[in-house]
Amino acid sequence: MTERLVVIGGDAAGMSAASQAKRMRGDDLDVIAFERGTSTSYSACGIPYWIGGQVDSMDDLVARTPAEHRKNGIDVRVRHEVVELDLDARTVNVRDLEKGRNEQLGFDQVMIATGATPVRPPIDGLDGPDVFGVQTLDDGHAVLDRLTGRGKARKALVVGGGYIGIEMAEALLRRGLEVTLVDAAPAVMSTLDPDMGRLVQDAMIKMGIDVRVDAKVESLTRPTGGDAKVKVHTSDGDFDADIVVLGLGVRPNTELADHAGLPLGEHRGLLPDMRMRVPGADGVWAAGDCVEVINKITGRWSYVPLGTHANKQGRAAGTNIGGGYAIFPGVVGTAMSAVCDLEIARTGLRTAEAEEVGLQVVSQTVESTTRAGYYPGAAPLTVKVIAERSTGRLVGVQIIGREDAGKRIDAAAVAVWHGMTVAEVASLDLGYAPPFAPVWDPLLIAARKAAESLTRD
Amino acid sequence: MTERLVVIGGDAAGMSAASQAKRMRGDDLDVIAFERGTSTSYSACGIPYWIGGQVDSMDDLVARTPAEHRKNGIDVRVRHEVVELDLDARTVNVRDLEKGRNEQLGFDQVMIATGATPVRPPIDGLDGPDVFGVQTLDDGHAVLDRLTGRGKARKALVVGGGYIGIEMAEALLRRGLEVTLVDAAPAVMSTLDPDMGRLVQDAMIKMGIDVRVDAKVESLTRPTGGDAKVKVHTSDGDFDADIVVLGLGVRPNTELADHAGLPLGEHRGLLPDMRMRVPGADGVWAAGDCVEVINKITGRWSYVPLGTHANKQGRAAGTNIGGGYAIFPGVVGTAMSAVCDLEIARTGLRTAEAEEVGLQVVSQTVESTTRAGYYPGAAPLTVKVIAERSTGRLVGVQIIGREDAGKRIDAAAVAVWHGMTVAEVASLDLGYAPPFAPVWDPLLIAARKAAESLTRD
Question: So what's the ipTM on this one?
């Protein structure tokens, strides 16, 4: 008997699940995917590089268009928003946003992949048309429209110094705007320890971005007759801007699931099991930015909206819907970004996160180089290693450096995954040759120093 | 009571041990280090880059000179060769190579760090003055002398296509020589599977190196009156050369230890325990290119002469001599090299090595990119994953690619270290952002495909 799978949300998680399930079951499974926007399977993480000009066109960010999905037998309907999910009746109510009419549709299985929404705190004036989140390709278009043509923006203010904030600040600078970034925290990149975040901040200031930390946005006003469109009032003074970009992170887009009675976690994300089934709800799957994930170090739910997780989770869900077996075992908090030629990477817990779950930690930071010191192109690299004091277990690593620095986080991510002690990490057999690393790899030096500091205690 | 440590060999392993032990014990330990050559603590791995011109001067390759070591309280004696080690009398007989006289000296502890010697097979004519190994800085000087001035070499022949062979072939090409490389194996880089080795070979041919595989050197003759100095006769024809460079690997330099009655392994290396003590010989330590190492995958002794191991082993020995505790737990066979802009890396066992120890394996090779496909500078990357058929355990990974490809081996090295299955590797939390990786990291794709191939079996 043919089953019907309804997929809510046409980006990475939803379409990975749809594609994988369809590939495995063929005619045995009808797959209908609803997407509120106009694109499917796009790279949200690529939007800052499209705005910055490194990526030529929006089309480059689309891994698979609706037409390509249709060729694979998936009935994709863009500009369709699922407005109600009825788990008892096993129906969805879908609004065709073009035609303005609703339709009821039954399903056997449903995949919830509704993604995330930029955080927009309740600040006076933050709702204006000159304030942009950067989450969808449509958002990207809207920002780009403001950077071109007559009356184009000259001054930008970015609110928040996380991944999207710093990437957008650089993108706008590349487009020739004057850029101010305000962050309420004492340093940008609060996913790093503040001492590491300050290295990023210094690099941004050197690039010409006006970075204001410990600065809280209080309100936005739009005085008539001024030079700029918006005046942003902060605890560190007032700033003029023609365009305001939100970089305060995102939150799970789970209103639909919530109304359907599905339980949400403390970050308001769905809480699927390892096969991406929503517990207690038969035939209901969830994946991507609308779900929380287990952090393998703490064993606790956390919210880590990243394209790489969305793809893996979506594929795992699709394999399971398709009758196979696949799991998503959790994360260790690996993340990367770049500002100009600075590469920024982290894995595991930062110091504050470790302390929050009750871990006592020590840390060691070393300065080293990406290649043997004598080899041309050797670039500086800072590695911070965080270890549990009583056991020596590696709980986190942060790396900041130039070319070829960032992906070194991967070895640390695998070490954290296995709960290795820093003493054992120090004797790992990592790749060495003069063009690639000093004879003592920077990660190994930092781990060794951390191990030595524990012995001395 | 002050003890005396005699160190035999003044490069990475010996001087790391000497420095660490002296640092820990101070005046309590007399350290005398004998070095046959003229330099201490140099990077042998850097010699091809010095010859190739990427590194300006020999001095750049020296991490610490004899004078610097002396400042740290170590009595370094260069141009001194230990010619006899008497473990019963606890003495060494040392020949001063400058003055031509011998001295007897007692010790409480002795560190054997005699390094390695280039393999020089018994081929007629291979002993001539135009045939060079590349192991010491003096070797480097000798080669450079042949590349400059009147009558300088124009044609080079490199015997052997391993790490040193390919690096020297590139170095000589950079110096403007016509370079032929002959290798008896069916592909260069026999530390890789032949299909991966052929990618290296193709790149070398494109660079302009005449690569001859399946070609066995039979003899060298020196006809008078010819254009070139040497005629190299091989199973693939005769080649003229002004200079012949050996790239056939090295063997442990253990004659001294052998004469002292210390047991050697099947590769003729010493077999120290994890603290780098030579078992059964009190107060005798060994580290570096003169020892064998345990391969953590096979549990068997193997010979992996690499500077990074020598440094770690030497430091571990020094810590233990100093009264502390440190171990060298073994290797997983990680190694890297570069030819031109091609980065070459491996870890674990290659297919033939796995089969040799009785493992049945499957493999998967994927072509991917270093960055998101749409991001500028995304470069092709080939990843080969080898897994045990019955368990799915990852036993080896090989990576060939351009900029930013090689060090990706480290994550694989940590995964191999832990005996992860390819299914688990496929869900690792590796770093993702468009400038650094596709949303599915190439290693994860290869591991996933290997896992899928096992399920299908």
Answer: 0.95
The verdict on a CB contact (< 8 Å) between B434 and A46 is yes
Contacts of A330 in chain B (CB under 8 A): 429
pLDDT tens digits for range B54-72: 999 999 999 999 999 999 9
Q: Which residues contact B211 (CB under 8 A, 6 or more apart)?
A: B161, B180, B181, B183, B188, B201, B204, B205
Inter-chain CB proximity A45 and B434 less than 8 Å:
yes
Question: What's the alpha-carbon Rg for chain B, to the nearest Å?
Answer: 23
Cβ neighbours of residue A266 closer than 8 Å, sequence gap 6 or more: A301
Residues in chain B with CB shorter than 8 Å from the CB of A432 are 45, 306-308, 334-336
Q: Chain A closest CA to B345's CA: distance in Å? A: 7
B197's tokens: 């080795």
Closest of B158, B215, B184 to residue B339, by C-alpha: B158
Residues of chain B short of pLDDT 70, as ranges, are: 226-227, 457
A12 contacts on B by Cβ (under 8 Å): 439
pLDDT tens-digit map of A294-353: 999 999 999 999 999 999 999 999 999 999 999 999 999 999 999 988 999 999 999 999
CA A304 to chain B, closest CA, distance in angstroms equals 11
Looking at residue B69, its amino acid is H
Contact yes or no for A427 and B375 at CB 8 A: no
* Whole-prediction pTM: 0.96
